[in-house]
Specification:
The complex is a heterodimer.
Chain A: E1 4-12, E2 20-27, E3 39-40, E4 44-47, E5 54-57, E6 68-74, E7 82-87, E8 90-96, E9 100-105, E10 116-120, E11 126-133
Antiparallel strand pairs in A: 1-2, 3-11, 4-11, 5-10, 6-9, 6-11, 7-8, 7-10
Chain B: E1 4-12, E2 19-26, E3 39-47, E4 52-54, E5 58-60, E6 67-72, E7 80-85, E8 88-94, E9 98-102, E10 112-117, E11 121-129, E12 132-134
Antiparallel strand pairs in B: 1-2, 3-11, 4-10, 5-12, 6-9, 6-11, 7-8, 7-10
Classes of the chains: A mainly beta, B mainly beta.
Chain lengths: ~140, ~140
């Protein structure tokens, strides 16, 4: 069985009066089981040529209502540059320069196509991304 | 300024060669390298099945660089927390899963809500932000 592990570590020495340190690891499994995810859309880089909206992952291309996980990273080093991240047309948030995200994704197609879309704030920005799929 | 770093490591034997991805970000306020996110809201609670709950009992300032961490601490692999934004399903966090997402909260429809499934789910969350307005007392 394939094993995909994800670890997050959040640290701060001065956000609170006491030091903050949080670390956790998850093994990515298929919905409702202990079986590891076995599919991936691969690690990729996308350079945007303009400030139009791009569909990164189309829900219709993946199994609906599952335990997919999407990893995104804005590689920009210009602080003001961001990607707007949308799921099903709803703005989730902005990924500023250097920011990354790990998003659970149901690939829901029941009501609205739950596509993951990105809109860069400037032309010629680069996004790194990867999808772990539950197929 | 407050300095909060968030690092991720993804490793896998899914491919014929080992894969490892590492990324670290310092959580900054929107559009600057001079000032870090300086607010935090944290919770660790039992989430009973049945109803949908707004995760954050406050309204963060819109169109900023807030970050939301959420982990499902359930040990039963069939339990999950459904994540929705407005009326739209985003994804499901099964027992042991975590997420770290940008959280815009650009308007009322931007509220992140959670619904427990399978049984009572124990969740932990942290919102890193640059300003919130507490919800008025009912």
């Amino acid at each position: 069985m394939a094993t995909i592990t994800t670890t997050i570590t959040i640290n701060s020495t001065d956000l609170l009066t006491d030091e903050l340190s949080l670390s956790t690891t998850a093994t990515l499994t298929t919905a409702g089981t202990s079986t590891g995810l076995t599919g991936t859309a691969g690690l990729a880089r996308k350079k945007t040529g303009n400030t139009s909206e791009y569909t990164l992952f189309a829900a219709a291309s993946y199994t609906d209502d599952k335990a997919h996980k999407a990893y995104l990273k804005n590689t920009s080093t210009t602080a003001a540059q961001y990607f707007i991240v949308e799921v099903a047309g709803a703005v989730v948030g902005r990924l500023y320069a250097g920011d990354w995200a790990l998003i659970p994704w149901a690939a829901d197609t029941t009501s609205t196509n739950c596509d993951i879309d990105i809109t860069p704030s400037a032309a010629d920005m680069t996004l790194e991304y990867m999808l772990f799929t539950d197929e | 300024m407050a300095t909060t770093t968030a690092a991720v490591t993804l490793t896998s034997d899914l491919l014929s060669d080992e894969m490892s991805v590492n990324a670290t970000t310092t959580c900054m306020k929107a559009g600057t390298t001079a000032d870090g996110l300086d607010g935090m809201e944290y919770g660790y609670l039992d989430l009973v099945t049945g109803d949908e709950y707004d995760l954050i009992g406050a309204t963060p300032t819109a169109s900023k660089a807030s970050k939301l961490y959420l982990k499902n601490h359930s040990t039963d692999e069939t339990y999950f927390v459904a994540i929705t934004q407005g009326t739209q399903a985003i994804g499901k966090l099964y027992g042991g899963d975590w997420m770290f997402i940008p959280a815009d909260f650009h308007d009322a429809a931007g509220e992140i809500a959670v619904t427990a499934n399978g049984g009572t789910n124990k969740i932990c969350y942290a919102l890193f932000h640059e300003g919130i307005t507490k919800d008025a007392s009912a």
